[in-house]
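Backbone geometry:

***
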Amino acid sequence: MSTTLTRETSRAPRRRPAHVASPARQPAAPSTGVRVALVQSRSAVGTETFDPRDENLERALDAIKAAADEGAKLVVFGEMYLSGYRTDEWLHKWASHPDSSDRHVAALERAAKDLNVHVVMGAGTFGAHIPGDIYDSALLVGPTGLIGVYRKVHVAAFPYEKGLSMERCFYSPGRELNVFDTAIGKLGIHICYDMHFPEVPRVQALQGAEILINVSAGADGFQDYWDHFSYIRAVENASWYLVCSVVGDQRGDRLFGGSRILDPSGTAVAAAMNDEEDILIGDVDLLVARNVRTQAHTFNLRQPDAYSAIAAPRAYP
């Protein structure tokens, strides 16, 4: 498989507003809202001799600028976008250090500051303590710099209809379900397969997350899963739920995309086309989630004492 993008895809993905807008620029987001941009983009894959990060970053910076020009304050990219999802055995060469000393992270920090935006970007990152320890991560960068890093907790390893998930061969699992307090709201970020575990977004919602964000690499064969899981995760947490995926073929794997914006009732207010690059732009009104929670009593009807078995340790085998 070629590790470089064709001329046709070397530009940033095209912009497609989620709502009706003027030809020049969308109207301002509501005062209780955040304009978000989901960048469903192809991503170059690394090899033994090719570092994909420069190429992927260049396209990302173009997309961030395009989104900011439309008023977006939160720009989201897919799982492992910076490093290439199927870079796999070459990640030990092309993973990033999650701090300002890393030139790719520093470039994102400059862009976020210059454009006054927050950026969530999937990347392979090195751990802080054990040399060579690598995580499937999402970087959160804002106008003040690197805000935090989420490391995928549920690292996939299973056969499925169209192939075999081998993530556990290359990544260590994360151990924290972070919620990041930012100027645009509290963000609960998780990655792809984490969506299959209801505990992940629920814990983040209980920690105050106002927007739940799933950074993914939607593999062919999981289209129906994406439809059902994203709907129920939005509804059960009465939360805005954003899913942003990379798209395209990587080492024989078809990543279909499936990026979407769901409101707290589970309605997909906007969705990208499958198998196409896109920048999906929409407004997330935090007041909508607050109103739904006020009426549905999603959290104050819980009976945590009855659920203790969920978190209780189990003996194996």
Notes: The helical segments are 53-69, 91-94, 103-115, 199-206, 223-236, 286-296, 308-311. The CA atoms of residues 34 and 141 lie 16 Å apart. The two ends are 41 Å apart (CA to CA).
